[in-house]
Amino acid sequence: MSITIKDVAKRAGVAPSTVSRVIADNPRISMETKKRVRKAMKDLGYHPNINARNLAVRSSQSIGVIMPSSADVALQNPFFPEVLRGIGSHLHEVEYSLYVSTGGNEETTFEEVQRMVNGNRVDGIILLYSRMNDPVQEFLMEKKFPFVIVGKPFENESEITYVDNNNVQASKDLTNHLIELGHQHIAFIGGSKELTVTSDRLHGYRSAIKEASLPLPDEYIIHTAFLKSGGREAVEKLFQLDTPPTGLVVADDLMTLGVMNALEELGINCPEDVSITSFNNLYLSEITTPALTTVDIQIYNLGVQSARCLLELTKNKDEPAKRIIIPYDIKYRKSTTPIN
Amino acid sequence: MSITIKDVAKRAGVAPSTVSRVIADNPRISMETKKRVRKAMKDLGYHPNINARNLAVRSSQSIGVIMPSSADVALQNPFFPEVLRGIGSHLHEVEYSLYVSTGGNEETTFEEVQRMVNGNRVDGIILLYSRMNDPVQEFLMEKKFPFVIVGKPFENESEITYVDNNNVQASKDLTNHLIELGHQHIAFIGGSKELTVTSDRLHGYRSAIKEASLPLPDEYIIHTAFLKSGGREAVEKLFQLDTPPTGLVVADDLMTLGVMNALEELGINCPEDVSITSFNNLYLSEITTPALTTVDIQIYNLGVQSARCLLELTKNKDEPAKRIIIPYDIKYRKSTTPIN
DNA sequence: TTGAAAGCGCTAACAA
DNA sequence: TTGTTAGCGCTTTCAA
Fold it and tell me: From the Swiss-Prot or TrEMBL record, what is one GO molecular function term (chains A, B) (predicted)?
């Protein structure tokens, strides 16, 4: 069939193990034989069989990435390709490969994780979401399988390596920005309560509001489904209140897009009637009208760092859990303005 | 280390080969021993080692998906997660896994493909883009490695299996829709000329315009970079012409988003001043204001079908090349209106 | 219907 | 510095 290490060995007049050593660039092989072997590899068009290698060394040189189950439209969020890009770029450097799960629902996703882990397909796993009572996370914990979370774990925080932003502070900053602009009535629109990212951002918003002694009616906090319906409902609810908000903290740019369009339909103008702040700095936050004031969370970098951490973990299973906080940067654009 | 087939064999009091046959659900094994073996597997928590299996059968039960090199912002297009979702759903059914390339540029992507193919990491490959002079495609052709394209190959069309929409006709329909609404000055905004998808859509636009004997000045055809800059430049160019268009055929919803916002800044209203038609039916096409008239190309289904075809190809290398055309469906919404 | 044994292609002691 | 050899865990003839 394919050209194996034996063929190369024969042609170079050495033992297979020598060829193996040349592949690994073992320093105790003379430069001369290395050259000869490499030439033989070239001549024959040799490429190592990864499965055989993996079997022998009991690793796979690849890692798995788990997305939120794709039933969720959230998957259409450009966040995901962007972190993947970051993860991929780092993996590529170290010649690792990338498996992704794209299970349709929680169950199939879980099955895929099990296949990855139990079948030795991957050396480690990156979770691109974090929420409470996640069977996947529990499974990995219990198996003591190397994994890192992009985001913050809901529990066992000290035992899990994760990379995240300081979402609480970022959200607080955003809210304070609105407060400094004179806004007194500020509402929060977030995603599912189960997600840590939502609860952190809510938390930051809350504490800023409290510190400024501003009103914080329950109706100002909306947890909503993603996108169209979500944005619309949220807007409808908020703007039929007796005192509708003049400032908004929205947990995701994509949601904001929905919110803005719902507002427009109601004839409410941004930023004249309502100032909007948002999260993620997706490219689309620059092309909306007005351009969004949003938190750049460095999605790409979140990806890179998570890959880096995971690789460390796989090299050394006893590596202590750590937490990497990626700095954020608020992009002040046109969607916020002082209250008049 | 891990529990192997031998452990199971021992516990069940059979030979390893028998266990293997039970795993494969070989019909010549008595129901009784099957039961016994399965119980042993459960008791021990056995999971087959995929690398060993792959080595023995010389396959990998996984396929690779190649994205356009991610230097391109295009990657932020929700098209990709969506088609991945389709691919993943089918693969999951047949217990295959999914590798993705996320090379940063053309070169690293090419390297990754080589690693996938030469290292026997994957049994087949899906290309999520198609453009002229693509080294990846040439490499796969030459190696006779099973692959399918989502989109249409630029050359060797009859030798390559691909799944696509009838983009020419769809674009023609879109253009005709504008023509029927009374528009006489219709422009086309597309992406890179190198991409088949762009050239097909341009082609359809062209032929509709010609058949209606409408003017087709060169300035009405814009090839632009993606997104913000692209959309803006395109709009600026078009709307400083002596006779600016009143109708637009844009090759992608995301571009359209950029276009719409650029228009808004110039004080040009959609659909009053200009009717816009677009492609892909991304969820965001519903939440823009106005909602977009756009072609639903069934992204998810493109993914499913491409996976299905690829698996057939891997089973049978001599499977003749085929072409799957996924029907499209134009969603008529609010971004188009009769000319007044 | 089942078992024994060889082999998939590679790595890693252990020798030399 | 290099070769010999024994696996890694599974599948698959060939025999029984």
Answer: DNA-binding transcription factor activity
Q: Which residues contact B43 (CB under 8 A, 6 or more apart)?
A: B11
Of B198, B153, B201, B195, the residue nearest B322 (C-alpha): B153
Indicate whether B236 pLDDT > 80. Answer: yes
Interchain CB contact of B236 with A (< 8 Å): no
d(C-alpha B182, C-alpha B335), whole Å: 15
d(CA A117, CA A227): 33
Question: pTM value?
Answer: 0.90
Q: Phi/psi at A66 (nearest 5 deg)?
A: -105, 120
The pLDDT of residue A287: 80
The tens digit of pLDDT for each residue in B284-296 reads 888 888 999 999 9
pLDDT means per 10 residues in chain A (340 residues)? 87 91 89 90 90 90 85 70 88 88 82 88 93 92 94 92 97 98 96 90 98 95 75 87 96 89 90 96 86 96 96 88 97 94
Which residue is it, tokens 């906090």? A221
Q: How far apart are CA A204 and CA A202, in angstroms?
A: 5
Q: Which residues of A touch B66 (CB under 8 A)?
A: none
Could you say which DSSP state residue B114 is in?
H
Each residue of B61-99: pLDDT tens digit? Answer: 899 999 887 555 566 778 888 898 899 889 988 888 899
Topology match between the domains A1-41 and A167-298 = no
Q: Which nucleotide in the DNA or RNA is closest to residue B58, CA to C1'?
A: C8
Q: Cβ separation of A284 and B257 shorter than 8 Å? A: yes
Distance B221 CA to D2 C1' (A): 67
**Closest nucleotide C1' to the C-alpha of B49:** D9
CB contact under 8 A, A121 and B258: no
Q: In the structure, how far is the CA atom of residue A50 from the C1' atom of nucleotide C5, in angstroms? A: 25
Show the tokens assigned to A211: 């510190």
Burial of A133 (0-12, 13-18, 19+ CB in 10 A): exposed
Of B98, B227, B283, the CB nearest to A283: B227
Architecture of domain B62-163+304-327 in CATH?
3-Layer(aba) Sandwich (3.40)
Q: Which CATH code fits B1-41? A: 1.10.260.40
Strands A124-127 and A62-66: parallel
State the burial class of residue A16 (Cβ atoms within 10 Å of its Cβ: 0-12, 13-18, 19+): middle
Q: Mind spelling out the 3-state secondary structure of chain A?
A: CCCCHHHHHHHHCCCHHHHHHHHCCCCCCCHHHHHHHHHHHHHHCCCCCHHHHHHHHCCCCEEEEECCCCCCHHHHCCHHHHHHHHHHHHHHHCCCEEEEECCCCHHHHHHHHHHHHHCCCCCEEEECCCECCCHHHHHHHHHCCCEEEECCCCCCHHHCEEEEECHHHHHHHHHHHHHHCCCCCEEEEECCCCEHHHHHHHHHHHHHHHHCCCCCCHHHEEECCCHHHHHHHHHHHHCCCCCCCCEEEECCHHHHHHHHHHHHHCCCCCCCCCEEEEECCCCHHHHCCCCCEEEECCHHHHHHHHHHHHHHHHHCCCCCCCEEEECCEEECCCCCCCCC
As a CATH number, domain A167-298 is: 3.40.50.2300
Domain boundary assignment for chain A: 1-41, 62-163+304-327, 167-298
